[in-house]
Amino acid sequence: MSSKSIPPAAGSGISREEQDRIERISGELRAGIEELGDVGPAVSIFGSARVATDSWEYRSACALGELLAEAGVSVITGGGPGVMEAGNRGAQAGDGRSIGLNIALPREQLANPYVDTDIAFRYFFTRKFMLIRYAMGFAIYPGGMGTIDELFELLTLVQTGKLQPCPLVLVGHDYWSGLYNWLVRESVSRGYIAAADLDLVEVVPDEEVAAAVLLDKLKK
């Protein structure tokens, strides 16, 4: 069945270009909701797309994905390489559901080969909505701008009550402790955030502790 664009209402001030953009956004949201509506318990794993397969981050995320899958928890990632690939790979190894929410970018735009459910997105915010909406917990590995953006958006959503409190672990003391301590030293001390806000996140050393924290809190 062919689809037709809905013409903008006369005098609405919405151009055809903007109308088409609205339809694309709506289509992405609809496709994601239809695909993930029955996902059940799931954890989203974030982290750098640039880590090598022999890095500790890759090995750890793969092991975490497997531990979660063996416990009956689906794994959701951004669908790309690096930490995302590792999480999906571990989920498959643990006979769990491996979900990749990919996005078209100049780099890292192809879905990794360990994804069972592959959904492609054009817009970051629709993809991010799905990564958050259908997860009950989050594991964040070392990463760059995108990973840090996802971390602070999650914290903001929980802090402001837009997202129910959920387990959120930062995996890797060496990478995350400096940021955590900076927030205590600068943001808490200046009154920009409350000390209790940092209780929303837990820095853990490895995948075993991460899995234990996530699974324990998911059971409650």
Automatic annotation (TrEMBL):
Record-listed E.C. numbers: 3.2.2.n1
Catalytic activity field: AMP + H2O = D-ribose 5-phosphate + adenine
Q: Where is this region: Disordered?
A: 1-20
> InterPro entries recorded for this chain?
LOG, LOG_fam, LOG_family_nucleotidases
The UniProt keywords, alphabetically, are: Cytokinin biosynthesis, Hydrolase
Q: Which domain of life is it from?
A: Bacteria
Q: Which family does it belong to?
A: Belongs to the LOG family.
NCBIfam families, sorted: Rossman fold protein, TIGR00730 family
Name-wise, this protein is Cytokinin riboside 5'-monophosphate phosphoribohydrolase
Species name: Congregibacter brevis
Its taxonomic placement starts with: Bacteria, Pseudomonadati, Pseudomonadota, Gammaproteobacteria, Cellvibrionales
